């Protein structure tokens, strides 16, 4: 599949002081309907990208979101989640929302105590294309085991909440399927972008709303999910 295509190579760094030069990704930029510029990423050589640096995402308070801080938060939240279910004596069915939550969920569940018992599944949901919301979220209902929902406690884990539609629709769907309880958990939140009435039961960080974040499972225009840290693009003058 990759035959005849040149591969892009992006060096990885978590340091705000050494922003990466995206000239290394030789792709054109284009304006979105919000006026934001973004890169069109392919493995084909293209025009030189210009004027952007990559830097770690920032919290609302301006703090940099480093991998260490994410790991620490995962430990704290996993411990709270585990305690919540153990105290109630229930086995949760944990659904993580694909694709974005794939790395977060993998890191998160490895923080659980070895004897903690739960069921786990990844469920596809999608509503964004090219870094913009394109319509109502579509959830792959067939990936959810109804036997594990009826009368059970569910936890839906997502990488990020913005409008809130994805998590709200999951919650509604699972309650319709007969769940006795649906809790929600996210790593990142852009609270002022909310359009649907839902607040996650657990959340890691509130982040600055004007940034499109990617890496750590999250996509930039469908790509770059493998990037190890949560990063964003900034015009070169702002970095
Ligand atoms: O709060 P919302 O406005 O609903 O946005 C949050 C959702 O957006 C992203 O999913 P996306 O549709 O981009 O699919 P992906 O996980 O495959 O990237 C993200 O992973 C969340 O699931
Ligand atoms: N990858 C990614 N997905 C999102 N879905 C809603 N907001 C975002 C964002 O900033 N990044």
Output the CATH class name of the largest domain. Answer: Alpha Beta
- Radius of gyration, taken over Cα atoms and rounded to an integer in Å: 19 Å
- Unreliable runs: 1-26
CATH architecture of the largest domain: 3-Layer(aba) Sandwich
Structural class by sheet pairing and helices: alpha/beta
Shape: globular
Give the H and E element order.
EEEEHEHEEEHEEEE
Count every helix, treating DSSP H or I runs of 4 or more residues as helices: 3
Average predicted local confidence, pLDDT: 86
* Terminal-residue CA separation: 36 Å
What's the β-strand tally? 12
Domain Phosphoribosyltransferase: 92-220
Pfam family, one: Pribosyltran
Organism: Blastopirellula marina
Protein name: Phosphoribosyltransferase domain-containing protein
What labels would you give this structure?
single chain, 239 residues, alpha/beta, Rossmann fold, 2 domains, six-stranded mixed β-sheet, four-stranded antiparallel β-sheet, 18% helix, binds 1-O-pyrophosphono-5-O-phosphono-alpha-D-ribofuranose, binds guanine
Give an account of the 3D structure.
The chain is of the alpha/beta class and 239 residues long. The chain has two domains: 20-64 and 211-238, no CATH class; 67-206, Rossmann fold. Helices cover 18% and strands 28% of the residues. It has helices spanning 67-88, 102-109, 165-176; strands at residues 20-21, 29-31, 37-39, 52-56, 93-98, 119-129, 132-139, 153-161, 181-189, 202-206, 213-214, 231-235. The strands form three sheets. The chain has a six-stranded mixed beta sheet, sandwiched between helices. A four-stranded antiparallel beta sheet has the order 1-4-12-11, with no helix packed on it. The relative contact order is 0.18. 1-O-pyrophosphono-5-O-phosphono-alpha-D-ribofuranose (PRP) binds next to strand 6, strand 7, strand 8 and helix 3. The site of 1-O-pyrophosphono-5-O-phosphono-alpha-D-ribofuranose (PRP) has 19 residues, from strand 6, strand 7, strand 8 and helix 3.
């Amino acid at each position: 599949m990759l035959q005849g295509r040149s591969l892009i190579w992006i060096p990885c760094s978590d340091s705000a002081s050494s922003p990466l030069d995206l000239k290394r990704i030789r792709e054109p930029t284009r304006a979105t309907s919000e006026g934001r510029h973004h890169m069109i990423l392919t493995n084909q050589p293209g025009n030189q990208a210009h004027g952007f640096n990559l830097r770690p995402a920032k919290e609302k308070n301006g703090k940099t979101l480093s991998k260490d801080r994410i790991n620490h938060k995962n430990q704290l939240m996993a411990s709270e989640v585990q305690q919540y279910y153990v105290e109630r004596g229930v086995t949760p069915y944990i659904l993580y929302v694909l694709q974005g939550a794939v790395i977060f969920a993998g890191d998160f569940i490895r923080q659980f105590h070895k004897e903690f018992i739960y069921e786990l599944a990844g469920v596809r949901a999608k509503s964004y294309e090219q870094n913009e919301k394109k319509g109502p979220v579509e959830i792959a209902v067939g990936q959810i085991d109804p036997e594990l929902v009826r009368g059970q406690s569910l936890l839906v884990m997502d990488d990020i909440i913005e409008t809130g539609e994805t998590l709200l629709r999951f919650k509604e769907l699972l309650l319709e399927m007969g769940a006795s309880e649906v809790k929600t958990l996210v790593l990142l939140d852009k609270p002022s972008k909310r359009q649907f009435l839902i607040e996650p039961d657990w959340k890691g960080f509130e982040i600055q709303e004007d940034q499109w974040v990617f890496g750590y499972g999250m996509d930039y225009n469908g790509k770059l999910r493998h990037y190890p840290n949560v990063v964003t693009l900034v015009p070169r003058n702002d970095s």
